Amino acid sequence: MKNYEMICDNLQVTKDGILCFAGQRTDILAKQYGTPLYLMDEDRIRRCCRIYSTAMKQTFGDKGRTLYASKAACFKRMYSIMQEEDIFIDVVSCGEIHTAVRAGYKMQNAYFHSNNKTDDDIRFALQNKVGHFVVDNEEELTAIDRIAKEVSAKPKILLRITPGIDTHTYEAIATGQVDSKFGSALETGQAEHITALALSLSHISLCGFHCHIGSQLFDSNVFFRAADCMLRFIADIRDRYGYVAEQLDLGGGYGVRYTNEDPAIDLADNIRQVGQVIHRLTKELSLPMPMILLEPGRSLVADAGLTLYTVGTVKRIPGYKNYVSVDGGMTDNPRFALYRAVHTFVAANRMNEECNMTADVVGRCCESGDILGQKVSLPETVCRGDLIAGLTTGAYTYSMASNYNRIPRPAVVMLSGGQTYVAVRRESLDDLIRLDE
Ligand SMILES: *Cc1c(COP(=O)(O)O)cnc(C)c1O
Predict the structure, then answer these.
(1) pLDDT tens-place string over residues 181-197
(2) pTM above the 0.90 mark?
């Protein structure tokens, strides 16, 4: 078995060396839809949703809920899939709210995050009947209270607490440490202070607490510690203020396999173990079981995604290095440029050939930093017209895509049960100038 086959079970190779994704030949898909192209395995997304919702139900009964952190991959079809799978959603902007509303998503099941909601954002969310606000800081809390009063609303809120947990993930995606830009810190007393403030305001309804400690996490201890910190905080608040939280949202962050070195996580088992910690602690602290929420993004959609590119220039600099340039790049996947994130790249039409060349897979943008992958192993026969596939690209790629160099964003094609359909059309050149006066 080769490395790429072990990353996710929706990858196979035909006898003639063509990579298949969700049972379909990538060479045919590339021909039919063009490249660069995002492919999403809908059946895989649904399977991931069910792993979470089944485990949450088994562990917490009616008190367990899964939210999809929709920033991972946001377009209308994703919201309708989440609605069909009975998964709640996180939204972080008016744009995500609008997309969900237009997809017909039931907004009472949406939680509005972000560390800096503007007054307009708050009004828009109230107008659209977003179910909960997850409030980052005191300034935001008072703004929500003030605007809710103006429009005679009383939104439900959770407070985002920073539990002070260092997750040893990359700095750019760590969020749980005291000096994070997100949330109100336990250690500094700001968490208690914002809780007291929330309890004193009359146009909001405090429902509980939230934390999100980081992303691409493989160590379940981190979740145990987060649950421990948060439940002790909840008990402390009960003792001092007589307020008992009804909801505890432990955030997202479970890791996925970008390379063969990343371990596979048994999500169901992890959730059960976190559940045991929570059951034991609630008993110890004499707390009623709160509603427990998890809000995965990446682990619901990352390995349901694959990006297809066509090779252009192959440049060999003797004694130095090789470059394989593709027809996409940081515009469709800025993850390497942004945080040196590693993906696996394969020559999708030469899967049976030996990988005897090392090359950087680079994009077409006018930036030296426009790199998709460094030191990628590929067959030395790779040439113009070949197909390169980026694996595990379902999360934080399309949603982070840009039009830098006026490059149109690729289409998102969904694969389901042997069928395909376009979920997001490829941008046209005219789309690129539609806002230009
Ligand atoms: C990004 C984010 C998530 C999802 O993180 P993943 O690593 O994709 O699971 C969940 N909650 C919050 C608040 C986030 O910012």
Answers:
(1) 788 999 899 999 999 99
(2) yes
Separation of CA 313 and ligand 1 centre (Å): 37
* Beta-sheet pairing, 37-41 with 64-69: unpaired
Residue 72 near residue 301 (C-beta atoms within 8 A): yes
Closest C-alpha among 79, 80, 81 to residue 90: 79
In this structure, what DSSP letter does residue 216 have? S
Longest Cα–Cα distance of the chain, Å, equals: 72
Binding-site residues, ligand 1, Cβ < 6 A: 69, 71-72, 90, 113, 212, 215, 251-253, 295-299, 395
**Mind listing the pLDDT tens digit for each residue in 47-80?**
999 999 999 999 999 999 999 999 999 999 999 9
- Strand pairing partners for 309? 388
Quick one: DSSP state of residue 125? H
Instruction: Confirm if 255 and 217 have CB atoms less than 8 A apart.
Output: yes
Question: For residue 78, what are the CA distances in angstroms to 45, 303, 414, 422, 424?
Answer: 9, 15, 10, 12, 10
Please say if 366 is a catalytic residue: yes
Q: Which residue's CA lies nearest to atom 3 of ligand 1?
A: 252
Between CA 116 and CA 128 the distance in angstroms is 18
69 class by beta-carbon count within 10 Å (0-12 exposed, 13-18 middle, 19+ buried): buried
